Amino acid sequence: MRLWICIALLSTALCESTEKPGVAERIMEAGEFVRDAVGGAKDMLRAYLDMRRANYIGADKYFHARGNYDAAQRGSGGAWAAKVIRWLFLLPHSDLREAMQTGDSGRGDEDSRLDQEANEWGRRGGDPNRYRPKGLPSKY
């Protein structure tokens, strides 16, 4: 299964190239794209796990921005992974997301909009500390 995912990512990366370099260069670029995408996915996961561990009220926007920022800093593959992960798991107005949220976890459309704003801020290279709440432990 992992092999097929790698092949699919490599194929996507090869097709994403807008220039027409030689085959060897395209393969190298595709490999870098895949490496960045995997690293970006890890960055997003690390931010999510830190958010869960911190369990700090009002810190979710910071972790959204930080995960997207870290992923985007890796390059185009990292930014792509952040977009895909956001699309898959953070669908802002989907029935699926609303169905998955129970009790206090769902905060409504306004909170979803602010989460997406923090995602975009981080992905564009904005400082995640813009969303850092006072009192959040420095290890995050």
UniProtKB/TrEMBL annotation:
The keyword Signal appears for this protein: yes
Disordered, as annotated region: 100-140
Segments of skewed composition (Basic and acidic residues): 106-130
Pfam families associated with the record: SAA
Signal peptide residues on this chain, from the entry's feature table: 1-17
GO cellular component terms attached to this protein's record: high-density lipoprotein particle
InterPro entries: Serum_amyloid_A (IPR000096), Synovial_Prolif_Regulator (IPR052464)
Keyword terms of this UniProt record: Acute phase, HDL, Signal
GO biological process: acute-phase response
Domain of life: Eukaryota
Protein task: Major acute phase reactant. Apolipoprotein of the HDL complex.
Entry-linked PANTHER family: SERUM AMYLOID A (PTHR23424), SERUM AMYLOID A PROTEIN (PTHR23424:SF29)
Family to which this protein belongs: Belongs to the SAA family.
Protein name: Serum amyloid A protein
Biological source species: Sitta europaea (Eurasian nuthatch)
Gene behind the chain: Saa
